[in-house]
Amino acid sequence: MRSGAALLSAQGLTVRQGGAVVLDSVDLQIGGNEIVTIVGPNGSGKTTLLRALLGILPPAAGRVWRRPGLRIGYVPQKLALEPMLPLTVGRFLDLPRRHAPDERARICARVGAKGLERRQMAGLSGGQFQRVLLARALLMRPEILILDEPAQSLDQPGAAAFYRLVEDVRRELGCAVLMVSHDLHVVMSASDRVICLNRHVCCQGSPEAVLEAPEYRGLFGSGTGGALALYRHEHDHVHDHGCPERGRGESNG
Q1: First-to-last C-alpha distance (Å) of the chain
Q2: Which of 2, 6, 12, 75 has CB atoms 3.0–4.6 Å from 147's, for a disulfide?
Q3: Which DSSP string do the residues of 74-112 spell out, in sequence order?
Q4: What is the DSSP letter of 120?
Q5: Which candidate, 57, 198, 75, places its Cα nearest to that of 130?
Q6: Rounded Cα gap, residues 70 and 7, in angstroms
Q7: Residues near 98 by Cβ (< 8 Å), separated by ≥ 6?
Q8: Could you tell me if residue 86 is left (phi over 0), alpha (psi between -120 and 50 degrees) or otherwise beta?
């Protein structure tokens, strides 16, 4: 983890849904100004973990700690809006509280959503929608951005551009980023630390270390071995470690 006081942590976090264990004794800690990505197969509990960290889902055991007063910007995996609802981008960005027009315009321009404020949310493309969601999260002036598969509707070049934008925003704001993604070919090299999840933390560390971990290869194979050539930036030193894989089970996330 990068130097700096912890913003968010979990200790022994266990979540049950419908009697089934979805997360089993998860420990993690997010420090200031680092990009941490959670990867894992379908049903591994990734979205569940984010929702538990946000306080949306209660733990069955363990605890979640958030620094008092922590400002969080959240981009959910899906946001269902009624297609016939007359909701402009500008009005959407003012939920749950209003922002100064010049601040909205500045943030929209920064994320590549300039000129969209009068457009209807229902008429946006997938990429435009995701950038508006990011703009809304940034208007919270977050100390940590939590992103749940933010580029799932984008093609690979669009996803790469989106992750570069996230990294640039992190650098400018000095905020931490915690995100879930399936885009292994891009996100592994856009991260300072990767957490491989399969109901528990299978392994974690720098992208290079995780790619070589037997726990990661057991879940994803070795086909991503050259992924880091697509987009690379310098990583801080991270203490890497793995743990034996436990039994798999069906779960959400």
Answers
A1: 24
A2: 75
A3: EE-S-----TT---BHHHHHTSSS---HHHHHHHHHHTT
A4: B
A5: 75
A6: 7
A7: none
A8: beta
Per-residue burial over 214-245, b if 16 or more Cβ lie within 10 Å, else e, is ebbbebbeeebeebeeebeeebeebebebeeb
Q: What is the pTM of this model?
A: 0.81
Q: Domains (ranges, CATH) in the chain?
A: 1-71+188-236 (3.40.50.300)
> What distance in Å separates the CA atoms of residue 225 and residue 47, rounded to the nearest whole number?
25
Q: 89: how many CB neighbours lie within 10 A of its CB?
A: 25
Torsion sign across C-alpha atoms 217, 219, 222, 226? negative
Q: How far apart are CA 3 and CA 220, in angstroms?
A: 30
Mapped onto helix, strand or coil, the DSSP state of residue 130 is helix
pLDDT in tens, the chain (253 residues): 544 589 999 999 999 999 899 999 999 999 998 989 999 999 999 999 999 999 999 999 999 999 999 999 999 877 878 778 889 999 999 988 899 999 999 999 999 999 999 999 999 988 888 899 999 999 999 999 999 988 877 787 887 788 888 888 888 989 999 999 877 766 667 788 999 999 999 999 998 888 889 998 888 876 544 343 333 333 333 334 444 334 333 334 5
Residue that is written with structure tokens 């990734």 in the block? 46
